[in-house]
Design goal:
heterodimer; A: about 525 residues; alpha/beta; Rossmann fold; 3 domains; six-stranded mixed beta sheet; 18 helices; about 35% helix; B: about 375 residues; mainly alpha
């Protein structure tokens, strides 16, 4: 063997994976090398996680070849992946809460009947010492912080002898200090000759940590660069690609008035992680405000906080109805918000898990907004029934019957049911999260048109999106979130795509991360 | 490129299944169960046809047997109705046993305190006033017993399954203590005296009036679950807590309210048992009804009217099984095994209503298609 072959740990050749009509990875060729940290970069939905899941044995490629240490390998299960020394740390940890660190490490390993937990603990300490982890083998997982759980996941892989480690957005859940510690550990593992892949969309982390960066866009491999020979601007360009014209209609806002004024909105989740950090902006009636940002930058929390579904630590949400005094929505339940006369429509990201009841038909789902109406103990079926028919006709929902469970409808039809119902409430604020995700072109344009119609009616539309091309053509202004903070608010008619892309990956326009 | 490993057979989730076909599968399962039961009789050296005949003869042959069947079915049906709203909400209340017992204690308190006393309750006829007091007491006690786990679940997210299960044993323990202590009849007997005639449910067609009550209740629960705002809230919450919150529903209150209702109905069943069937209270008052009712509710797919059929069927099996021993010398334990087999087959049929076994590559295509959908959903989740 030559030395070149020796440094190549994994080679994926022409790997393709499709899910139904969606192509998640299209003939991707990628090399992972020993003693190197490779950063896999790409926008949401560009296929990074899917690609790595095929190495980890979660998915099996439709076509293509995978070579591990120069030999062709079949990875059909996580067990196969381990046998090849490949381990992956997923965004959602796979640990058993009631067990200790040591017990989690040996869980699922073959061995004798008796478990020598002392020996396991000793090995764990040895691994921890080698790479500079802090870990207590006897500590129960439920007592651990997010960072400790992540450390445990890494140790679990090392214990099993993994020398190819894949980390899926490892820093998304960490504080800056914890991130630093993790990076130190990863650098030590690299020195030790391990091959490391980190999936990320934070450019400064790529610059700080990685040796090489490979970029995916819409499931395709775009290119790779040595980090020492590139800068964030070049990476952003590769990541977002050239601007594509979509020809979405956009009218000039007529007489925009402040509708929703949000100041200093801060949300902290149950784990104590700050999800929104003093977010301030104003949504205008008669305008579409786009919200851009990499996944998990606080989009979900922002919409849910406004809808009264997420506890707010501090801040103000002032709602100003047409020609009336503003009122603060903070601390109100969704019912109280409705009773206060706020016509708020909300198309959440999780359509069947939050916006709709999957097991019910269109009629039952229309009732979700009107079930309290009318006196007495009985629900009124007549109005929701009529509404279901209207939505079905106007939005051309394909369903055998208005009582056919919406779970069984196609994704586009599900979304039409949801959006149709929300618009039927005659809202003054319409919030939508990833409204066109997974939809075909025609349905997507139907949704864009509906958003535009609402805007022309004077509704304040808030459109959380992931496709920058759509945001740039549909919205009037774009608010960019980065790590729970407002990175900037720009005019969608004037801003360049690269600029938004850059704002998504670091704070503020002026801040210099290129150094 | 290597071939994908091909399993010999695998399971595929069915799409829409016509209700006719689903019914066919369920009927086939009952037939299969009877055949499996026949096999057991054959192994024991008995004639299966005669054995099944004796089960029917023993349960439906004589009027007194038929009355006994109804007596068994009434608490089963009532309890299945009680737990149905909880199960629709995906709140796994397996504490009906304890709620029945608590209700029985409540009813017994009034029966012992007022029955045969204070002039107005001294008559030989059932007293409507006293029975109403007993029913109310039973409902309050049952509801209270259900409130405890519901409150802790709503407030601190405790596990309702374990909580309701443990409360069963506490309720039974309380009755044991009452039997040997404050309510003991003859000193040392460990038995609570029989209720006075004024505290007994009147009979209609030879069976205590409880059967009319549960039939009434069947209609009420059907309407409640299908046509009321409460029923809608329960259905939404059962599908997704996030959707319920999104729709502005008060999740904690709905949970507590539904459990209160469930406990009250279970308590009422406890009242019917002590006042109608047993005429006294002892620690085995619920006698497993709370658990068998789960099977009834589940087999009936939470449909109240289907529960009538299922509870009657189970009652026929139970009563008829007793007859096997006396007539054919087959131990009742064998009858229990056969009852178990039949239940197992019926529950398994629900599996085949939802899945089908696929062979060969045609099935695999279906898997790919399903996988694709799951994959996209999974992707959305990861993003």
């Amino acid at each position: 063997m030559t030395s070149v072959e020796n440094t190549c740990a994994v080679r994926m050749e022409e790997v393709t994976k499709t899910f139904g009509s969606v192509t998640a990875n299209d003939r991707v060729t990628l090399e992972i090398r020993k003693g190197e940290i490779l950063s896999l970069l790409g926008e949401n939905g560009s296929g990074k996680t899917t690609l790595m899941n095929m190495l980890a044995g979660i998915y099996f490629p439709d076509s293509g070849r995978i070579y591990v240490n120069g030999k062709e390998a079949t990875i059909a299960s996580p067990r196969d992946a381990f046998a090849h020394g490949i381990g992956m740390i997923h965004q959602h940890f796979k640990l058993v809460n009631v067990l200790s660190a040591a017990e989690n490490v040996v869980l699922g390993l073959e061995g004798g009947v008796f478990l020598d937990i002392r020996e396991v603990s000793r090995r764990i300490r040895e691994i921890a010492g080698q790479y500079g982890f802090a870990v207590d083998p006897a500590k129960k997982v439920y007592d651990m912080s997010v960072s400790e759980k992540q450390t445990l996941e890494i140790i679990k892989l090392l214990y099993r002898g993994a020398d190819i480690l894949i980390l899926d957005e490892p820093t998304a859940v960490l504080t800056p200090q914890e991130t630093e510690k993790l990076f130190d550990v990863l650098r030590r593992m690299k020195k030790d000759g391990k091959a490391i892949v980190i999936i990320t969309h934070k450019l400064h982390e790529v610059m700080e940590l990685a040796d090489r960066v490979a970029v995916l866009r819409r499931g395709e491999f775009v290119g790779e660069m040595k980090v020492s020979e590139t800068d964030t601007a070049a990476m952003t360009n590769m990541m977002v690609g050239r601007q594509i014209s979509l020809n979405i209609e956009r009218s000039e806002p007529r007489d925009p008035k402040p509708r929703l004024a949000i100041t200093g909105l801060t949300v902290v989740d149950g784990e104590g992680v700050t999800k929104l950090d003093h977010v301030s902006f104003t949504a205008m009636g008669g305008e579409i405000l786009g919200i851009a940002g990499v996944a998990g930058s606080g989009q979900k929390e922002l919409l849910e906080a406004v809808a009264g579904l997420c506890p707010i630590k501090e801040g103000k949400i002032l709602y100003t109805p047409e020609g009336k005094e503003p009122s603060d929505l903070v601390g109100k339940t969704p019912m109280q918000i409705k009773d206060a006369g706020v016509a708020m429509a909300f198309v959440p990201e999780d359509r069947l898990g939050m916006g709709l009841v999957g097991g019910m038909g269109m009629v039952g789902n229309m009732m979700l907004r009107s079930w309290r109406e009318g006196g007495g103990i009985f629900v009124r079926h007549r109005n929701p029934g009529a509404l279901a028919k209207t939505v079905m006709d106007e939005l051309e929902v394909v369903t055998p019957d208005v009582n056919y469970p919406v779970r069984r409808l196609s994704g586009g039809n599900v979304q039409k049911v949801l959006v149709g119902r929300e618009i039927a409430t005659a809202p003054s604020v319409l919030m939508s999260a990833y409204a066109v995700r997974g939809l075909d072109i025609n349905t997507s344009y139907t949704i864009y048109n509906l958003m535009n119609q609402q805007k022309e009616k004077g509704v304040a539309v808030i459109f959380v999106g992931e496709d920058l091309d759509v945001l740039l053509e549909l919205c009037d202004r774009i608010l960019v979130l980065y790590d729970g903070r407002v990175s900037g608010i720009v005019n969608a008619r004037e801003v360049a795509k690269e600029e938004v892309g850059l704002m998504m990956t670091r704070l503020g326009k002026g801040e210099n991360a290129d150094a | 490129m290597h071939e994908r490993k091909q399993p010999i057979f695998h399971l595929v989730k069915r799409g829409e299944l016509s209700s006719k076909y689903a019914l066919l599968i369920r009927l086939a399962s009952i037939l299969a169960a009877l055949l499996a039961g026949a096999l057991i009789f054959l192994l024991l050296g008995s004639n299966p046809i005669r054995a099944y005949g004796e089960i029917l003869a023993g349960s439906l042959g004589r009027e007194s047997a038929r009355q006994r069947v109804i007596n068994i079915a009434v608490p089963l049906l009532g309890t299945a109705l009680a737990i149905a709203p909880c199960f629709r909400m995906k709140f796994w209340n397996i504490g009906a046993e304890g709620q029945i017992t608590a209700g029985a204690v409540g009813a017994t308190y009034f029966a012992l305190t007022f029955g045969g006393k204070y002039g107005i309750f001294e008559g030989k006829e059932p007293s409507l006033l006293l029975l109403l007091m007993m029913a109310l007491g039973a409902m309050i006690c049952g509801a209270f017993w259900a409130l405890i786990p519901a409150f802790f679940h709503a407030k601190w997210g405790t596990n309702e399954t374990l909580f309701t299960l443990m409360l069963n044993y506490i309720a039974i323990g309380i009755v044991k203590w009452l039997q040997g202590g404050p309510w003991e009849g003859k000193p040392g007997s460990q038995i609570i005296p029989n209720f006075h005639a004024s505290a007994l449910l009147p009979k209609v067609f030879g069976v205590h009036i409880g059967w009319i009550l549960v039939l009434l209740l069947t209609v009420l629960i059907f309407v409640y679950m299908r046509y009321t705002k409460h029923g809608y809230e329960i259905a939404v919450l059962g599908e997704s807590m996030n959707t319920a919150r999104y729709a502005g529903m008060n999740v904690a209150w709905i949970t507590i309210r539904t459990m209160l209702l469930s406990g009250a109905i279970a308590g009422l069943v406890g009242f019917m048992i002590v006042s109608g069937a047993n005429k006294t209270l002892y620690f085995g008052v619920a006698g497993g009804v709370g658990f068998t009712a789960i099977t009834v509710a589940w087999l009936a797919q939470l449909n109240p009217f289907a529960m009538i059929v299922i509870s009657l069927m189970l009652a026929v099996l139970e009563k008829g099984a007793g007859n096997l021993e006396t007539v054919m010398g087959i131990p009742t334990s064998i009858a229990d095994i056969i009852t178990g087999v039949i239940l197992l087959f019926m529950l398994a049929s629900e599996f085949f209503v939802r899945y089908r076994v696929a062979l060969g590559s045609r099935g695999l295509d279906w898997v790919r298609w399903d996988e694709g959908k799951a994959g996209v959903a999974g992707k959305e989740e990861a993003e």
